[in-house]
Amino acid sequence: MFNTFINFLSLFKNIPQTDIDIIEKELSYRQVIEGEILLEEGQICREMFFVCKGVLRIVAKNEKGNKMAYFFLKENQFCSILNSFNNNILAAEGIEAACDAELIVLKKQKLLSLYEKLPYLKELITGITTQALLDKIQLRNSYLGEDASLRYRNFLLRQPDIALRVSLSDIASYLGITQQSLSRIRKNMR
Questions:
Q1: Distances in Å between the alpha carbon of 80 and those of 14, 50, 59, 156?
Q2: What CA–CA distance (Å, rounded) separates 184 from 171?
Q3: Which of 18, 45, 60, 142 is deepest in the core (most CB within 10 A)?
Q4: Neighbours of 25 (CB within 10 A)
């Protein structure tokens, strides 16, 4: 599993074998099942996850107190609540497994230790997570102002791999519509 992580990082920078050995010593592997909570909203995020297989969801409670899916992260993506992780503050969101998943776990203290040993790694991971955050914002903004039917159609076009692996309730939540509305939309598309 560590190879998946190293291969991904190697897409952006050539990493010498001696550094790979150092990095792998600080990583851990975790399998999670659908619905498993990795970070509860209101806790301090002390782990960053790299998704090797599966899908994670970022969740938060809306004004009515209902848990909503705010974003999905899939293979070859980092997942963390960066504001909490970087600033040691309570997370406004939580992280859950949207389906069974296999993860590489980077504990904050071990990651900071890696940054000291391999300073280029901080720039590399920060660059990747910053670009991913910008992509996430752009994707979420692309759904704004569209009616529910168009949001769903665009979701299927933009994130088909997610649509096939997460529950309809998660999709409805993510798109800001009720599950009943999503069922009607899906029925009308046939």
A1: 25, 9, 12, 25
A2: 14
A3: 45
A4: 11
Amino acid code (one letter) for 130: T
Contact status, residue 106 vs residue 26, Cβ threshold 8 Å: yes
Do residues 73 and 109 make contact, with C-beta atoms less than 8 angstroms apart?
no
**Please, are residues 47 and 105 in contact by the beta-carbon 8 Å criterion?**
yes
- CA angle, residues 149, 97, 11, in degrees to nearest 5: 90
Can you tell me which residue has the tokens 């074998």? 17
Long-range contact pairs involving 65-73 (C-beta distance under 8 Å, separation at least 24):
67/173, 68/173, 68/174, 68/176, 69/98, 69/166, 69/170, 69/171, 69/173, 69/174, 70/140, 70/174, 71/136, 71/140, 71/174, 72/98, 72/159, 72/162, 72/166, 72/170, 72/174
Q: Which pLDDT value is given to residue 189?
A: 81
User: Model confidence over 66-113: pLDDT tens digits?
Assistant: 889 999 999 999 999 999 999 999 999 999 999 999 999 999 999 999
